[in-house]
Design brief:
Rossmann fold; three-stranded antiparallel beta sheet; single chain; 13 helices; seven-stranded mixed beta sheet
């Protein structure tokens, strides 16, 4: 059973780094740490803590589907309002119908996640937020699905042109075995695979919705999904039913993997080419550490191709790198940057939206000249959270948050439909939490945020 899947020769255990993994009954199994990694919709689920990651995604996606239900109910209520303009009624009815159909379509696509068995309430989801990045849900990069597989030929061609421009050798692309980290909806990985004259392509992302959609499409299926543009051009563009499809079936040498790019489940020196599209400036890990991970996975002489913007937004100013600093980090990480390009290309220019723009992208191809020391395993959380048997440190931020939570909880307890903001401020002063003069604007600000959240139906 071990040799039936070509992925076996690339994969290492994301939990303990042992290789190779065994494959049996649609699972990869690490014989060293005994961890079992399932398949979700035929896609290997190779997270270091597979059960925890699956639970988090189930919670996140279940909550997102509940949000769609709440949005549909809100639209129904608005449709009953008096004196609605005929055009407004038509638009709201379009959105309500599309929202209901969209939810049903996503439920079918997400069936392998087994969301339907969950019974967690909407309010519980709001209270118990999962560990995934707060912006990751059904809507995160959902528009990219339509760009990749419906209307985005110009953008897809421009992206491919930039990557091929730094990879070309004698007019052809021989990238060998290629890894695409942060592949999203996978159009660039698909196009690169078709252009590559040698080797297999492995596309990795940690968003199951994106890869489940991509898996169906590159396998030859057509999907009908609604697009919900940010800035619709017309009334009918508020919800547009698109047909998503690929030019041709990708074939067996393009493989999808669900995993965390900061804990890549691959053996050292497995790939001839690694591509990081729109990735290095949005991950949590500092660039020098991530560059060392890339080095560790590349064969001697292998190439690292980076494509996308360099909009680093770390809380630490020292990690908001300029292009010159990026290239310096690349060189310090055992690479020589041979081909460098910068271009302005269209970005998310949906024909149904006024929101499209042009984006300046920075592309480089760096060849691995020497091995560097492999970095330690990435840890998203400290051991006192993961293991649970160490003292929780009394961090300054925790003390601040504890006081804020105490005040907010007290304010919440005072909301009874009778007390005014002035009344609440007097009670906070009596509890010696703050003076009345301080309390009134603080309560007003807190209630304003609560009111805004309730109107937006906000959550994940």
């Amino acid at each position: 059973m071990t040799g039936e899947n070509p992925l076996v020769r690339f994969i290492a255990c994301p939990r303990c780094d042992k290789t190779p993994l065994e494959r049996t009954q649609k699972r990869f199994v690490c014989t060293a740490c005994k961890t079992q990694f399932p398949e979700i919709g035929g896609i290997p689920w190779l997270f270091a803590d597979p059960d925890v990651a699956l639970g988090e995604w189930r919670n996140r996606l279940h909550f997102s589907l509940q949000q769609l239900s709440h949005e549909s109910q809100r639209l129904k209520r608005e449709l009953t309002e008096k004196d609605l303009r005929a055009l407004t009624h038509r638009r709201l009815e379009l959105q309500r119908k599309a929202t209901d159909e969209h939810r049903k379509s996503l439920q079918q696509i997400l069936a392998p996640i087994d969301i339907q068995s969950m019974q967690v309430s909407y309010e519980s989801h709001l209270a118990l937020r999962t560990r995934l990045p707060i912006d990751q849900g059904l809507n995160t990069y959902y528009a990219n699905v339509h760009r990749d597989w419906a209307w985005g030929a110009q953008e897809n061609d421009a992206s491919l042109k930039q990557v091929l421009g730094v990879l070309h050798e004698n007019g052809e692309v021989h990238a060998g075995d290629t890894l695409v980290l942060g592949a999203g909806a996978c159009r660039l990985a698909y196009d690169l695979h078709r252009a590559n004259h040698s080797g297999q392509t492995v596309a990795v992302d940690f968003n199951p919705l994106l890869l489940l959609i991509a898996s169906k499409i590159i396998g030859g299926a057509s999907l009908e999904l609604y697009e919900f543009p940010i800035a619709p051009r017309s009334l009918d563009d508020f919800a547009v039913l698109r047909t998503l499809s690929a030019p041709e079936v990708a074939g067996p040498d393009l493989r999808l993997v669900l995993a965390d790019v900061l804990r890549p489940p691959f053996a050292p020196k497995s790939f001839a080419t690694i591509v990081t599209p729109w990735l290095i400036d949005i991950i949590d890990e500092d660039l020098p550490l991530f560059a060392a991970r890339i080095n560790h996975l590349l064969k001697p002489g292998g190439r690292w191709v980076n494509f996308g913007s360099l909009a680093f937004d770390s809380p630490e100013r020292s990690r908001r790198y300029s292009p010159q600093e990026v290239l310096e980090v690349v060189r310090e990480s055992g690479f020589s940057a041979t081909n460098i390009a910068e271009a302005s290309i269209p970005y998310m220019c949906s024909p149904a939206s006024c929101h499209g723009r042009r984006e300046t992208v920075f592309t480089f191809c760096a060849s691995k000249e020497k091995d560097t020391k492999p970095p330690g395993r990435y840890k998203a959380l400290p051991d006192w959270i993961v293991l649970g048997n160490e003292p929780v440190p009394l961090l300054r931020s925790f003390e601040t948050q504890a006081l804020s939570t105490k005040i907010y909880s007290f304010i919440m307890s005072l909301i009874d439909g009778k007390r005014s903001i002035v009344d609440m401020a007097l009670l906070l002063e009596k509890q010696q939490l703050m003076t009345r003069k301080e309390a009134e604007p603080a309560i007003r600000n807190f209630l304003t945020r609560m009111y805004d959240d309730s109107r937006r139906n906000s959550g994940f």
